[in-house]
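User: Structure with heme C, tokens only please.
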Amino acid sequence: MKFTALAAVLSICFAGTSLADEPNISAGKRMAEANCSNCHNIEPGGAFKLYPPSFQAIAIYMDPQVMRMKVMFPDHATLMPQFHTYMFAENIDNIVGYIQTLDE
Ligand code: HEC
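Assistant:
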């Protein structure tokens, strides 16, 4: 009985956590339009062999964890802005969530 109650409480906690971690795709798209579209093609159907790479290409060849890392810590000597100095991690997660929707 006790165990069932504990399991119920735990499942509620974890359900809450996973909801909070779910990226907000439409917010991510708006952030990408405002912050990334000057340089990247952020629309579906972006071609390969572009520089900088289109978001569709990135969605296909790059793991989401690596995407997040590249936005936080852009390669040395790149034009990529240092987003981590002014963008909340949650917004970066939303943008990465949006990029992942282009993987098709
Ligand atoms: C001022 C132009 C500029 C802006 C704005 C910009 N980027 Fe970039 N981005 C680049 C360039 C240039 C590269 C290529 C870096 C390199 O490999 O030299 C790049 C690379 C990347 C990569 C890594 C691709 C790879 O194959 O290594 C990711 C992921 C990325 N950008 C995401 C974003 C996101 C998300 C935003 C908006 C929050 C953004 N970029 C805004 C210019 C920009």
